[in-house]
Amino acid sequence: MNFTKACKEWNITLSDEQNKQFEDYFHLLVEWNEKMNLTAITDQEEVYLKHFLDSMSLILAFDELEKVHGLNKEKLQKGEFSLIDVGTGAGFPGIPLKILIPQSKIVLMDSLQKRVTFLEEVIRKLDLNNIEAVHARAEDLGKDSNYREQFDLSVSRAVANLAGLSEYCLPFVKVGGAFVSYKSGKAKEELLAAKNAIFLLGGSTVGEKEFFLPGTDMSRNLIVIEKKQPTAKKYPRKAGLPTKSPLT
């Protein structure tokens, strides 16, 4: 897999500086992965494909996001948006998106302090601006007025059911913004099961963007949910409940 060629399939052209940032990010990821569990994928080609490119796939959903009341394609392409990455782990998709769209304002949120320490090192080494890593649980940060309903976009690649993810992510989104859930493969059944939960949280499904990672048969799906109404104050519920007992 040639990274430059794969990027061109999605009309992405990276500068030398951006390529260097991805290279440095990869080396930091592998180095830190030896002392803490960040990723099971350490082969360079696989990291670039399954982490970096997959994270950048948000740009493929810009047509769907343009249907959201408070967003437009020009604003998105120029990076004139704020984004929170919920459960970011090793920084996916937030850091690749920040490298790709430097003008964006990004918050990386994770519940594990040692991962946040890693993210802070990445931010420093890559000389990224207008980005911060926050140690918190979504259930708590989602109630904090400094973060609640403050973002144009909330994104997550976390492995959880869509109803639970919506309860974690929609409280961060402004009315007129959107939550984008990264999913592997088709997600129609999951979307159907989460329909009422999304409604209860003030959201409405706009659409899906299905695609394959370049040069592979690996299917992916971006689910776009618009924030139509403020989220009721009782959401998100206390720690663990959104996952253990999803809204129905």
User: What would you call the shape?
Assistant: globular
Low-pLDDT windows of residues? none
Judging by the overall fold, what is the CATH architecture?
3-Layer(aba) Sandwich
CATH topology name, in short, is Rossmann fold
Structure description:
- The chain is of the alpha/beta class and about 250 residues long.
- It has a single domain, classed as Rossmann fold (3-Layer(aba) Sandwich), CATH 3.40.50.150.
- Helices cover about 40% and strands about 20% of the residues.
- The chain contains 12 helices and 7 strands.
- The chain has helices at about 5-10, 15-35, 45-55, 60-65, 75, 95-100, 115-125, 140, 160-170, 190-195, 195-200, 240-245; strands spanning about 80-85, 105-110, 130-135, 150-155, 175-185, 205-210, 220-225.
- A 7-stranded mixed β-sheet has the order 3-2-1-4-5-7-6, with helices on both faces.
- Strand 1, helix 6 and strand 2 (about 105-110) form a beta-alpha-beta unit.
- The longest helix has 18 residues, at about 15-35.
- The chain is globular and about 45 Å long.
- The termini are far apart.
- The mean pLDDT is about 95.
Features:
alpha/beta; 12 helices; single chain; Rossmann fold; 7-stranded mixed sheet; globular
